[in-house]
């Protein structure tokens, strides 16, 4: 009798010990899960904070006009200068300082200049015109040194050509220049055969970041 009771007591103690070990094991697992979950949450918060800071930094950089990176023009055998470097595509509201005049790309205003064969008589805001280039437009610019006959002839050509625009720009170095996204060249006048070549290659050309985007519904003068 005593032996049976002792056996029952020993079995009960064994079950209790087993249950205690199981409970301790569950507590350890729960602690591990809690620590892991907390670590994941903290990591997520840290990552979110980093992304937010970087985003704010990027926005600030772009808005200050420094989001275009460094680069330089490389002139091809056809006389077209191609920009080798980063051209930002952020929409910004503050003034962007471009590394070339007229600019061939970079961060820009969210509203484009109408470029459906539009001829402007006053200088444009570069930030709006660059958005037109992003849509695949060719931008014809000229200084006061350009011959009136050339200006008139080029204006007539632009008016007949969708995805083009034209405006004066006395800040540029040459009397007549043609610009597309990432590309630019000087021409001697309206009869220069390079005018037609540039139009044929770059009006909605392969360089276009946003092919098919509208050239109407933007800004006008």
Characterization of the model:
Pfam families: DUF3105 (PF11303). Residues 14-27 have a biased composition (Basic and acidic residues). It comes from Streptomyces sviceus (strain ATCC 29083 / DSM 924 / JCM 4929 / NBRC 13980 / NCIMB 11184 / NRRL 5439 / UC 5370). Residues 1-27, 59-78 are annotated as: Disordered. This is Membrane protein. By secondary structure, the chain is of the alpha/beta class. The chain has two domains: 1-63; 71-202, Glutaredoxin, CATH 3.40.30. Helix content is 42%, strand content 15%. It contains four helices and seven strands; from the N terminus they run αβββαβαβββα. Strands 1-2-7-6-4-5-3 form a seven-stranded mixed sheet. It is globular, with a radius of gyration of 33 Å.
Topology:
Blueprint: H1 2-63, E1 71-75, E2 81-85, E3 116-119, H2 126-134, E4 138-142, H3 148-159, E5 164-168, E6 176-180, E7 183-186, H4 193-202
Parallel strand pairs: 3-5, 4-5
Antiparallel strand pairs: 1-2, 2-7, 4-6, 6-7
Instruction: Evaluate the radius of gyration.
Output: 33 Å
Q: What sort of overall outline do the alpha carbons produce when their principal axes are compared? A: globular
Approximate strand percentage: 5-15%
Q: What is the top-level CATH class of the largest domain? A: Alpha Beta
Number of helices: 4
- Biggest β-sheet: strands ordered side by side in the sheet: 1-2-7-6-4-5-3
Helix content: 40-55%
Number of strands: 7
Low-confidence stretches: 40-67
The assigned CATH architecture of the largest domain is 3-Layer(aba) Sandwich
The tally of structural domains comes to 2
- Calculate the terminal CA-CA distance, rounded to whole Å: 111 Å
